[in-house]
Amino acid sequence: MIFGTNTVSWVLTICALALAGSVANAAETQPAQSEASISEWTVEQVVASLKEGRESAVAFEEATYSSLLTKPLVARGVLRFTPPSRLEKDVLEPAHERYVVDGDLVTFESERKQVKRTISLDDYPGLRGFVEAFRAGMTGDAGLLKRIYETALNGNRRQWVLDLRPRDPAGRTMLDSIQFTGSEGRILSITIRLPDGDRSVMTLSRGHAP
User: Fold this and answer.
1) CA-CA distance, 42 to 167, in Å (whole number)?
2) On the chain, which terminus has fewer CB atoms closer than 10 Å, C or N?
3) What is the pLDDT of residues 47-66, one digit of tens each?
4) Contact present, 92 and 58 (Cβ < 8 Å)
């Protein structure tokens, strides 16, 4: 792959953060729930909440753990989503970098490295599946999400954990799992695990994106 393992990691990261940004505002738009409805929290309800409210920008802090690093690499920045299909991860610290998925094209820019590269999702079927799954999530299509991922949801409306694992063998060579933790219609953290043991852990800050 042109960008190696990092390609998978950052494409998955901006897709995951886009999903998080889509639900970050949902908790404020939902009416109060009874105790019975609190316990009835399904994957379909999580995905449906994406349509209830969406912020155009979400601030994040991401810690990346790798066997090549002596300590976690911490990055801070903003994710932006522009309907219908543009996802942007703008890293502000420790160095300015931009990662963009726009339609079928994926672009990486780095001021420090003085580089700009673009690839097509047509050349990476596994990544296309991930991107399309998260775009489906933004439209509330839980069926498509379940066709691409094995899903497991634990907890209740107030505190839940959603695990996604690729069904396709090619997808499993790129990604081990994505785990979301959340409360109500808001995602609080995202953990992405790669098959080689590397992982990234993100926390989200609603309402603080510049």
Assistant:
1) 20
2) C
3) 777 556 556 778 889 999 98
4) no
